[in-house]
Structure formats: C-alpha cells, structure tokens
Amino acid sequence: MDTPHLPFELAPGASLDSSSFSSLLRKLNGDAMPELSGSTPLEGPHATTILAIKHATGVMIAGDRRATEGYSIAHRSIEKVFRTDRWSAVAIAGSAGPAIEMTKLFQTELEHYEKIEGERLSLEGQANKLGQMIRGNLGLAIQAGLIVVPLFAGYDDRAELGRIFKYDVTGGRYEESDYWATGSGGRDARATIKKRYRPGITADDALKVALEALFDASEEDVGTGGPDVLRRIYPNIASITEDGFLKYGDDRIAELFQELIHERSKVASTEEHVPGAERPVIE
Amino acid sequence: MSLPFYVSPEQFMKDKSDYARKGIKRGKSVMAMDYADGVLFVAENPSSTLHKISEIYDRMAFAGVGKFNEFESLRMHGIRQADVRGYSYSRDDVSARGLANSYSQILGQIFTEAMKPFEVEILVAAVGEEGQPNELYHILYDGSVADETNYVAMGGQSEDLSAYLEKNFRPAQPLNEAVKQGVAALKEVENRSLPNGNLEVAVLDRTRERRKFARLTASEVEAMTAGAETP
Lengths: 283, 231
Fold this sequence. Notes:
Strand content of chain B: 15-25%
Number of helices of chain A: 7
Number of strands of chain B: 10
Oligomer: heterodimer
Shape of chain B: globular
Largest sheet of chain A: 5 strands, antiparallel
Number of helices of chain B: 6
C-alpha cells in the first residue's frame, strides 16, 4: 500500500531542518518570508541610533524613536528595541521595514526552536542564527540598499554575564566586550559612552549613560530623535539580567532626562564653559 | 495467477481499531482538567525529558498517549502549523479548533489508508480568556474528535480515570487542590505508589503573560500534594 498523502513533515524522510522556523516557512508559505526580489532601488523609512552597554549584572540595550525618509521624519515613535526571548533582545538600525520583519521572524524562530526542542537556544546559538538571517538579507542590501544592521544583546545563563553582538551587512558577527552603538548617530553615541563607561558599571549608571549617549547623538545627527517632552516620547531602554528582559517605563526615563537637562543647563550657564567639563563622573 | 484474499471493509477497520486500541491500552495515562485559572495536565512519565505534555502556542497545549514517535511527530506538526499561521496572519488567528481539525484529518487519513494506524490518542487544549470557557479536543487514533468539557482522560487507564473524575471533579478548584486531585486520581487507578519524580505536571494558566503554558517542577508538585490525600 502507498504511503498516504500526509503533510510533508510527517512523510518519512522529510528533508527539513527540524527545528528551524525559517526553512519551514519558506517551504509552506514562501510569500510570508521577508525576502524581496528585483533590482529596482527601494527607499523606505530608516531607523537610526541604537546602542548596548554591558553592566555589572547584565546588559543595557537602547534605541531612539525616530525613523527618517530622506530629509523627512517618517515616524516619531518607532520601536527599535525588541525582546526576542526572555533573556535576549535585538535593536535595529537601517531600513525599518525589513529590519522589523527580520526581528519578527527571529522571535518566532527562537520560540519555535524552544517548543520543538524542549529547551531554549543558547545565546551563542541565537547570535549565530541572527547572523545567518542578516546574510540571507545580503542580496537585498546590495541590490536595493535596504541595509539591516542589528545589535543583539542578552544574558548568557551559562557564562552568567551580559553579552553584546554586532553585525555587518554580510552577516559577519563580532562580539563586543564592553559597549557598542551603531546607526546614523552611532558614532556620536559611542563618543559619549567611551567617556562615561567603566567596566563593572552598575545598571543604574548604565541607564544614565545610555540616555545621555542617545541625547548627544540626537544633538549631532539629524536622523536621531531626542526625547520629545511635548509628546512624551522617550528612548526605549531595556536591561537584561538574570531575571530576564525589563523595559524601563517612560516615567523613569523622563525623570532621568530632566536630571540630565538640569546638569547640562548648569554647565551651559557658566561663563566660559567646556561642554561636559562639570558633569559629575559616574563611579 | 494468485488472487488476493478478500477481507470485508468492516473486518479490516475493526482489526485496525483493535490493533490501535491495544497499543494505547498498554501505555500510561494522561489527564487534563479545568481549574480556577485554566487547565491542569497530569501524566505519569518516568522520563523528565521526553514529554507527553507540551506547549503548542500562546494559549494552547498538547498531550499525547500511546506510541512516542507517533504522537511526537503530531506534536511537531501542531507547533509548525501554529507558528506558520501565527506568523503569516496574526497570533489571534491560531485556534485550537483549527488544529484539532487538522489532527483529525491526518489521523483519519492514516487510519484509512496506511497499513498500520497510529497507536495514539491526543488532546488539544486551549485556555479561555477570563470568563471564557476552556477548549478540550480529544482526538482518537481514527481521527474522531470529541469536544470535551471539564476533564479528559486518555491512555491505558482512561476508563477508570474518567470514572474517578466524573465522581470527584469539582469546577474552579484552586491549583493546589486540582493537582492533589489529579495525582490522587492517577494513583487510584494505577493502584500503586507514584513517586512525584515520575509525574509530569503542567498548566495553561490564564493569569500568565502571552505564553500561558508552564511546567510544574517535582518540588512544586511535592509541596502541593503534601499533607492529606484528597478523597
């Protein structure tokens, strides 16, 4: 008797990487796969400055809220920091559409793996998987300029510390030991973090540094949005520790931003001022 | 030239049914029941890594009895179907009814067309939002589906287990009471002692965040079942 007609994955010898969601999706519903074809240059909103800072109990990950389209603001309150599982998160820079889609696919990929295998993918494994997904996007980056460069951060429960991974468009994966910032204002944000960062910095101080770095980037870079007091739009900042992913509320960020403004205005009002000179050093 | 033996369809189906039932009868039991915050699953399972109960999607879980490789492939099918659907459309579009339907089709097809039917019984459960009823779909080896309420018992001792639950089930029990009752039910029908380490206990708890499924550890079960045995 013939083998009955079964869903392909139940048929004997189904060739499928059994725990990969993307290979499954490509097979079952190719249209839903975030891949575009064609060689016409596409333009869409770009998301901008994102950063990650390692701290004593884990890692801080943050992003501003602006998306730009050429010289216009495409979106004032876009989210760039996404929880991908309980102990990891992705922040996105580059073309917003493909980046958000890629993040959604990555989130599903992790959850799918966890359910099929019965245990979570290791942080290292997650970082590698994300690299492969970026590489899959390479054709798009070359043809259409839709570049997606995320930052990946998480708490590694095996090594018991926070870890940061950055990527290039070719899917190259590099681990950062202390901090990293990328996107259009990434350079400016990095400059601030470089001055403020100390190894073993506390989570509270890392939060302040993250906010300050994003604020500085917004002053220097047109693509980066600063805190918007009028509309109450503040950067997304989250901390990942042993206890999991925790996003700071807008009230907390608003309060810290007020403090920051207060410090800055003191500096600005002195007669001969050197920017940043009188700021207290964070222990 | 030889003619194949004629076997009447009735006989053929009956033989397959008997075969599948026998296989299931040999296995251990699983039960699921409603409790105050959702659905509780209790199974006898000496392995702590090869699960009989598993998460499918946000509000949905799966339980299987019978042959491990067979219900395991069905479990994976469920996760795949749910994830693809949730990704292609939206998370709210993944329904237990849809999945139960798909399982029913697959098992029905295997039962009629394959030489050997699957020796499994499975359960697709979904916890309802606050104030909404839970869904329990019990699917048999031949693809027939029963939409059950309050509790479901499957596996070797399913009849005794059902009888026990029919007598003792009380709606909206707190979790520890429900766990106590579930463990007592299994012990009663197996008529021997069951160390907590050999129990697989999980819940679909509507008070949890997006993913409602959680396993209870042996020590949690220990703490809940400690003290007086429930009647």
